[in-house]
Amino acid sequence: MRFRAGRYLQQPTGYRAFIPAPLPPDPPLDLSGPLRERLSEADYALGRLDGAVLTLPNPDLFVFMYVRKEAVLSSQIEGTQSSLQNLLAAEAQLFDPDTPRDVNEVANYVRAMNHGLARLADLPVSVRLIREIHAELMQGVRGGRLAPGELRTSQNWIGPGDCTLANATFVPPPPHEVPGALSDLERFLHDGAGLPPLIQVGLAHAQFETIHPFLDGNGRVGRLLITFLLTEKRLLGKPVLYLSHYFKQHRSAYYERLQAVRDAGDWEGWLGFFLEGVIRVSREAARTAAAILRMREEFRARITEGLGRAAANGQRVMDRLFDHPIVNVATVREWLDLTPAGANQIVSRLEGIGLLREITGYARNRRFVFEPYLRLFDEQKEDGYGG
């Protein structure tokens, strides 16, 4: 079983690099016992999530926020500091002097995600799509000089910041092996070897991270790959399953499980970890969808009761806030075609019922956040999503 995932080979300059074996694993996966039960549970949790999202008045607005939450968390794993609120303010073109400079990296992740989801209509998940996504992700940001969209032509390695090739935690295949390894992965993505779709997705993510085909951005592209495969294989009708929070909460276990695949061929251990993430994140996302419905109905009632003749305008503002959750008075004025005084009054009354909260503390150029909605995405449980 030791060489089941590949083997370490000495390179001409002295270091050892890992050469991955093509998927599917050989000997074949043992999908009996606990792993079969976990796969069944994961499939069920995904189905429940799909149903929960479809009960929402506009599922695409849920997708809007989830894509951004994933962009923030996936980028934070790579060391960025920007928050969900920083990203939303930047997208709304509301200048904030305290916005971290790396917010552009997070915005690129959103753009890469949306580009990939749109391309799936006419391009399967493939090496070509992966390169396009990488180009979108790395354009004009930290690491952008490292050949966006181009496979690496030099050796990379994984480990602490001061490590070298000689003492790295893991050394991926040398550059001349990368095109062939990716071609093998693409073949597996297209035929699947008769394996259950979720198992295919878990295998593909681990294999991509092992190949590490780019000089930078591999982790983010690998996490995007999960979403694209779930969508392409129709495991979800809407792209609302994002594992970055689970990977971030269990970061050391994530890296240990991937390394155990390479060192000991333990594909089953990795797949058990991956499926557990699918189960936990699916359940949490389904709970969030239900919470959105409850919150929306509660505030519809508060607006009707508290705004009197202005209730219709209040409802219109709330509906727009789902995909524009940080606003200023000028934005609301534009939405409703009101005078400045009228827009101010609506914003003030929505603030009064707890729908909006002012976040600048300024007397002028004030900004307001749709706080009850953002809270549903910001205050995730810190125990790895709970049960």
From TrEMBL:
Limits of the Fido domain: 125-276
Q: Which GO terms describe its molecular function?
A: AMPylase activity; ATP binding; magnesium ion binding; protein homodimerization activity
- Which residues does the annotation say bind ATP? E78, H212, D216, G217, N218, G219, R220, V221, G222, R223, Y254, Y255
Q: Which reaction does it catalyse?
A: L-threonyl-[protein] + ATP = 3-O-(5'-adenylyl)-L-threonyl-[protein] + diphosphate; L-tyrosyl-[protein] + ATP = O-(5'-adenylyl)-L-tyrosyl-[protein] + diphosphate
Signal peptide extent: none
Q: Which UniProt keywords apply?
A: ATP-binding, Nucleotide-binding, Nucleotidyltransferase, Transferase
Give the enzyme's main class according to its UniProt record, as a single word. transferase
Active site location:
H212
Q: Which InterPro entries does the record associate with it?
A: Fic/DOC_N (IPR025758), Fido (IPR003812), Fido-like_dom_sf (IPR036597), Fido_containing (IPR040198), SoFic-like (IPR026287), WH-like_DNA-bd_sf (IPR036388)
The EC number on file is 2.7.7.108
Q: Which domain of life is it from?
A: Bacteria
Q: What does this protein do?
A: Adenylyltransferase that mediates the addition of adenosine 5'-monophosphate (AMP) to specific residues of target proteins.
Q: How does it assemble?
A: Homodimer.
PANTHER family attached to this UniProt entry: FIDO DOMAIN-CONTAINING PROTEIN, FIDO DOMAIN-CONTAINING PROTEIN DDB_G0283145
Q: What's this protein's name?
A: Protein adenylyltransferase
Species name: Pseudoxanthomonas taiwanensis
